[in-house]
Amino acid sequence: RARPAGPPDGGWGWMIVAGCFLVTICTRAVTRCISIFFVEFQAYFGQDYARTAWIHSIVDCATMLCAPLGSLISNHVSCQVGIMLGGLLASTGLILSSFATSLEHLYLSLGVLTGLGFALCYSPAIAMVGKYFNKRKALAYGIAMSGSGIGTFILAPVVQLLIEQFSWRGALLILGGFVLNLCVCGALMRPISLKEDCKTAPEFLEQNYVPEPEKQDLKRMSICSPLIKLWPRECLCYCSWKEYDFLLMPGFMVLAVSILFMAYGCSPLFVYLVPYALSVGVSHHQAAFLMSILGVIDIIGNITFGWLTDRRCLKKHRYFCYLFAVGMDGLCCLFLPVLQSFPLLVPFSFTFGYFDGAYVTLIPVMTADVVGTSLLSSALGVVYFLHAIPYLVSPPVAGWLVDTTGSYTASFLLCGFSMIFSSALLCFARLAKKIKRTHLRSLTGNTALKQHIWTNGAIAYSVTAELDQRDVEFLAVDTNSFSNR
């Protein structure tokens, strides 16, 4: 059967969006709600902020650190198998956590095992949405990623109620059963093969690595299909490199560095918002309600920002929309230490939640714009992998600052400045790129240089080697027009 030329932008794609929506509820929303257990764990095990914060850190770190493993299973086995396996692992981890007798037990069961299960589900589900949508990609991602906000809004008060009724052990046991819904989500992930995925390695196929009758079949397959076992080591190495050659793209490198700082800044807020609210005299139910507000406004940010950045007037400005959202969240963190009552914390939850939903929606969209749809699964695995170390170290560092200084001010200021730096880095990178493109246009305006480039292919390559795809196309068009004249 002929492969579709491009993403269908609908049809079964909406079921993929629904499946991804449920995955984000069962992974990211559940992870956020672990902060509600923070005070319970601290009181039960009698530990300080820093040691208790490692639980949330390890969950987030394992989820992001193992994201490439989720992409690998999705690419080479099946997205459905990967998500179902992840659901079983995550559920097992939560159930085992309900029997914990020490923080170390929680580090392994709730941290490592549950985090690994979430990793096998999260990035493959998000990548599948990118394969089914193109024109309405940001909107589709907005709806899919809103599961994190909706899940937080619903689960935060429910988890608090479960803790009051059944203790933290009973609440974890019930969450373990709830997370089994990831297996249902995996069943919805019907794979799709697009023409742009059908890349081959001609230099290998022309050689005698595979029997002649199989060459035509392999040419019609993706270079990373399960049939790669038919190829020898040399072709396997080529395939693996082609899957990750985006790592050397300058645009992806800048995005990767900015994500490190952004991830460091955003993680402690979800761990310490409830404890901070309790420390300034807010009741337990009001503190949980702050998380619910943050979650529901997160939904609005997901969907409205996704819809807005799909409009023609803003579609080409997604980059600046993303850095604006990250910068606004950084400013919110800077102002948080002066907000010391429930009426003041409510507007904070509104603002931070909205812009958090906004930039989370645009992360996979920006990644697809940089590397293309065919490499999106692998690229998202790397992007979420980059979240791992900041997610691991930032909550304990913030907890150490709280233990040392006796207040949350230093922790929140560090988070705010980290996110603002992430936004500023992207802004400076875009300005540098614009200056380079302007310089290129001035060079190609020189007739003598055009003649030299046209007559010397090596010089043309050296000029374009450091430029992105749009610059290369501009130079090619300009020199071709000169040669025609």
UniProtKB/TrEMBL annotation:
What this chain does, per the entry, is described as: Functions as a transporter for creatine and as well for its precursor guanidinoacetate. Transport of creatine and GAA is independent of resting membrane potential and extracellular Na(+), Cl(-), or pH. Contributes to the process of creatine biosynthesis and distribution.
GO terms in the biological process aspect are: creatine transmembrane transport
Q: Which residues cross the membrane?
A: 12-31, 81-100, 106-127, 139-163, 169-189, 252-275, 287-308, 320-339, 345-363, 370-389, 409-432
Source superkingdom: Eukaryota
Q: What is this protein called?
A: Monocarboxylate transporter 12
Q: Hey, which family's this protein in?
A: Belongs to the major facilitator superfamily. Monocarboxylate porter (TC 2.A.1.13) family.
Primary residence: membrane
**What SUPFAM superfamilies does the database record attribute to this sequence?**
MFS general substrate transporter
Alphabetical list of PROSITE patterns matching this protein: MFS
**Location relative to the cell:** Basolateral cell membrane
Q: Which organism is it from?
A: Regulus satrapa (Golden-crowned kinglet)
Q: Name one Pfam family in it.
A: MFS_1
Q: Does the keyword rRNA processing apply?
A: no
Keywords for this protein:
Cell membrane, Membrane, Transmembrane, Transmembrane helix
Record keyword Cell inner membrane present = no
User: Could you state a single Gene Ontology molecular function term?
Assistant: transmembrane transporter activity
